[in-house]
Amino acid sequence: MTTLTAPASAPLAYRRSAVRRGVLWALAAAVPLAFLTVFFAYPVAAIVGRGLVADGALDLSGFADVLSRPRTWRIVGTTLAQATVGTVLAVVLGVPGAYVLHRCTFPGRTAVRAFVVVPFVLPTVVVGVAFRSVLAPHGPLGFLDWDGTFAGVVAALVFFNYAVVVRTVGAFWATLDPRAEQAARTLGAPPWRAFVSVTLPALTPAIASAAAIVFLFCSTAFGVVLVLGGTGYGTVETEIWVQTTQFLDLRAAAVLSVLQLLVVGAALAVAGRARTSRERALELRVTQMRLALRGPERRAGDVAAVAVTGLVVVGLLALPLLTVLVRSFRTPSGWGLGNYAALGTTGGPNALSVTVWEAAATSLRVALDATVLAVVVGGLVALVVSRRPRSRPARRAVRLLDGVFMLPLGVSAVTVGFGFLVALDRPFGIDLDLRGSLVLVPIAQAVVAVPLVVRTVLPVLRAIDTRLHEAAAVLGASPGAVLRLVDWPVAARSLGLAVGLAFAVSLGEFGATSFLARPDRPTLPVVIFRLIGRPGAENLGMALAASVLLAALTAAVMLVAERLRAGSAGDLA
């Protein structure tokens, strides 16, 4: 056997290379840290300061004032109730879907799995419009009388977060060894007992992780709640917006932001612990089972899972989207393309300051800028935290950075946008007012999108064998050459999906944008919300047509991203 021997000067060259790598990794971490500090930590800290500090001293009177209001506790109770019920329903309905779509094989499974993900990437304003259409008195489900009710808001939250449970639990379920459950069945346990005693405990880490993330998304939902719930079922998220934009009570909004940060921090801690348990669990990839709904191989559990999944996909996911599409062709004078033709106008009196097409162009430009920022920052973050250093302090530092860079995932976009308004009039004491700058909107959207880029690219980079990096360094490859020859070919395979997710999220972002968008340069979600708030069938028809346009743009972006990922998967195979 031939042994590859390093040159005699390899130890010295390796030490020099290690120093260079250390400097480069420090710089790679410094760029996203600086971005996070200026455009996330500083604005959020400014909000916390508004709630805790007055005249340079600690002052908790703002908390006492806000917490003494019955309105505050009603809103906090509504937030927790909607998040809890939405999380429970998403988990109960999502676990059967995870089994059918990830544990079993059947014709058309890929298409159904792709469709299930579509609601998660849809703009929240579009989801709100979709459910208003389907729950309206003349809508398909108008007989339920859920329009503007607690149940309608919860249904929309489940619609939005169903894919989180299916993907998170399903991906883990597909790796479980079925022999333990088969052994229980052989020993006489009925199917339900084998599932409850064997499979369900093994799925607990994945279910807990999914539930924590869904609770996080439900408790910080903005566009869906604002469109469907209004003031009657407002949450802490919408109340921050109301206190800022309608009551001009910045102190109350800051106190509510601090309360929300506490709830979000608890949800992130639970999600982090659950994710750690899931990563440490034994994973053994097995052959998936063929879905049998008839014949001697028919299983009662499969029939029930398929029935629940079918009802959810058709009744909860597809029906609202189809309703918006159909109603967008209905005009006051009959069926036609009048609503789409009106997109070139500013709507009724005092409805809009720009046309919908101009707002769409603004959204595309802003989303493009935000995507570039998110991919650059998120790519650097993923590259840094994917390292597996030998020393324990270095490993702890990497884990700490991973947690720090995930913080924007748990802080609401409304808080980020509000923080920009509070903090960036004189950032760090500099005599410079950035609040009217056009770059703030793409920066705020990039802050929201960075964690998604990291979570898309990071698993791929972590799959690279570290011995490849070490071997390349010993043989004299520069850090840049190692990145170009080892990391980049692998990371590029996930880059298409990361770009697609960032672009789709930026395109539909509404929470931060509602604070920062200038009246003469609104984005498409802001325009849709304005149209919904204006009376008249013409404005509603334009809102429906604009929602279809925004949903189509988002779906097209995700379709391209999925195709790029499919091509990358083929290359990898």
Automatic annotation (TrEMBL):
The residue ranges of the ABC transmembrane type-1 domain are 76-271, 360-561
Q: Please list every transmembrane segment annotated in the UniProt record, as residue ranges.
A: 23-53, 73-99, 111-131, 151-174, 195-228, 248-271, 303-326, 366-385, 397-424, 436-458, 494-517, 540-561
Tell me the GO BP annotations in alphabetical order: transmembrane transport
Keywords for the protein's UniProt record, in alphabetical order: Cell inner membrane, Cell membrane, Membrane, Transmembrane, Transmembrane helix, Transport
An example GO CC term for this entry is: plasma membrane
Subcellular location field: Cell inner membrane; Cell membrane
Q: What is its main location?
A: membrane
Pfam families for this protein: BPD_transp_1
Q: Please verify whether the record's keywords include Cell membrane.
A: yes
| Membrane topology designation | Multi-pass membrane protein
CDD domains for the chain: TM_PBP2
Q: Which InterPro entries match?
A: MetI-like (IPR000515), MetI-like_sf (IPR035906)
Q: Which family does it belong to?
A: Belongs to the binding-protein-dependent transport system permease family.
What protein am I looking at? Iron ABC transporter permease
Q: Species name for this entry?
A: Cellulomonas carbonis T26
